[in-house]
Specification:
- Helices cover about 40% and strands about 0% of the residues.
- It has a domain of about 35 residues.
- It contains three helices and no strands.
- The model has no long low-confidence stretch (mean pLDDT about 80).
- The relative contact order is 0.18.
- With about 80 residues, it is mainly α.
Length: about 80
């Protein structure tokens, strides 16, 4: 488990509703979410958290949608 979750206090999405980040499966990442994540200082930490911790298959993490993260996890497991 990642020792510190302090990065979350700096997230651009802090305080926003989760509905933006958990779209219907297959609908992709919205432009609004891309803008929010695109300017976020901790998007790398957010993405790393979702990949390392597991159990976060759904939603958008670090500006990256489910399909791309699934591919990343597949290639990481295969190597």
């Amino acid at each position: 488990m990642i020792e510190s979750m302090d990065w979350q206090q700096y997230a651009s999405c802090r305080g926003l509703g989760v509905e933006f980040f958990f779209p219907e499966r297959g609908s992709g990442v919205s432009r609004q979410v891309r803008r929010i994540c695109g300017r976020c200082y901790v998007k790398d930490e957010c993405l790393a958290f979702s990949l390392k911790e597991g159990g976060f298959e759904r939603g958008v993490w670090g500006g990256v949608g489910e399909r791309i993260r699934e591919r990343e996890m597949y290639f990481e497991a295969a190597s």
